[in-house]
Design goal:
175 residues; alpha+beta; 2 domains; four-stranded mixed beta sheet; 7 helices; 7 strands; elongated
Length: 175
Amino acid sequence: MGTVMSSAGDKPNQERVTLYVNTGYGNEVTLGGTMDDDIDSFGDVTWREFIEDYRHEEISSHLHNLDEWLEEEYGISAGQLDENLDEKAVDRYYTDLSFHQDNSSGGNAEAFDLLRSLELFPMDRDGNGAAHGVQLDQSTANGPRKTVWIADQVAAKWLIEQAAERGVLLEVVFA
């Protein structure tokens, strides 16, 4: 791990979070783990989660012909719903997995949502904004994606101070 920066004080009932500045990815920021951790987590998704949470299909609406539907749509049986996607499935559905991660469940989306909620600086309706070397961007080019960047340790220090003022104890790790 690289440089770790955090708030000096700790107050009761203060939320604690860790942001990772992924230096190998242009200083893109993730919450709770690195970008490599996010990529590695693709295989930790069950078929049930993938179908319902990522593809927004209702399994319950296909109970009358579940096995037939699952075989036709996904090449699996009902007995496999609680098994993790294998490498072949991850490759096949990579676009769906990465879209969900970039917008909902991934560390970059979680970092974006957290910092947007802190209202640190003026933002447009999509949450785009920047100040003091911290930038939030919700791109719609080539599909939507939420991203945060922290330019350097000076920007991280500013962000830590601003978060602390809003009740969030922030640790920033340059990795």
